[in-house]
Amino acid sequence: MKARRIAAAMTTLLLLGGATACSTASPGDAAVVGDTRISESEIGAQMASLNEAVGQPVDTPSPELARTLVSYNVGYALIGATADALAVKVPPSQLDLVYGQQLEQVGGEEALRQAAAQQGVPPVNLRRDLETQLLATAIVQKVAPGGDPAAGQQLLIDEVRKVAESVDVEVAPKYGVWDNEMLQIVPDPDPVSRSPEQPAPALPMP
Question: Which of 18, 74, 110, 177 matches a 20 to 30 Å C-alpha distance to 26?
Fold first, then answer.
């Protein structure tokens, strides 16, 4: 399993072909990315899955972990939207093949679940996380075919940032605020509500 700590972003509203330009979070939303709503219940289920995998009670609270999971889910949505904008797809057969290869490499489903959990990826997100990595790789190959990998990563970040700006990203205030330049959740800059927490990890990438 690869570490996934890097900034990510998306193409323009024109490329998105009509993605919602501005959305507002409602009660029960952990975050909103364009017209994609990430619910608190989704985050709760992912946290329970991760807690169970590492041997903790499923209802063990962790505000920092919750913020990280919200950040990852925003990343999934942004990478997915970028792929749609660029007409990049990962065939189910490719996802199945790579997933099977990972199972072989680590020694089975449970070993893969544990490896993912140690990196902060809930077991329930295994295939989604892998698909996001494959999409990110495919996007880099499209925007920088045969080019320098580092340059391709930067082009990907630039594309994702454009889309993040055009579709609007909003997170529930308890998690902080979304920073489009850094492409991550950061503590609220308001000195009244500012917390000592560090920015949530950057978006998932390969």
Answer: 18
